[in-house]
Amino acid sequence: QVQPVESGGGLVQPGGSLRLSCAGSGSIFSVNAMVWFRQAPGKQRELVAWVTTGGTTIYADSVRGRFTISRDNAKNTLYLQMNSLKPEDTAVYYCNTLSHSYAWGQGTQVTVSS
Q: What local confidence, expressed as pLDDT, does residue 13 receive?
C-alpha cells in the first residue's frame, strides 16, 4: 500500500513554531481532501485540520488560530504551519485522506517542552 512521508517535526519550546510536510502520491493526493491527524501518548488519533482540493480549510477548535494547513498540488505535498505551540500539542503527526486512502505512515514527532 502507498504511504505518505511526513517530516518536519522536532523539539520546540512553548510558544515556538514548526512546519510539517507530507509528501503523497499523485493519484491519491490530487483528488482528495487531505488531513493532518495527531496522536498523543495514551490517546486516540484525532483530526487536527483538513484542506479540500479547492483550498477550503477546517480546523479543530484546539488549534484554530495557531495552525495553518495548506497544499501544493503541483508537488503533491501537504503542509502544516504550527505557531504558538503548547505542551498539549505534543504528539505524532500523520497525514492522510478523510477516508484513510493511504496506509498510515511513520508520522513525525512533535514535542513541545521547556
A: 98
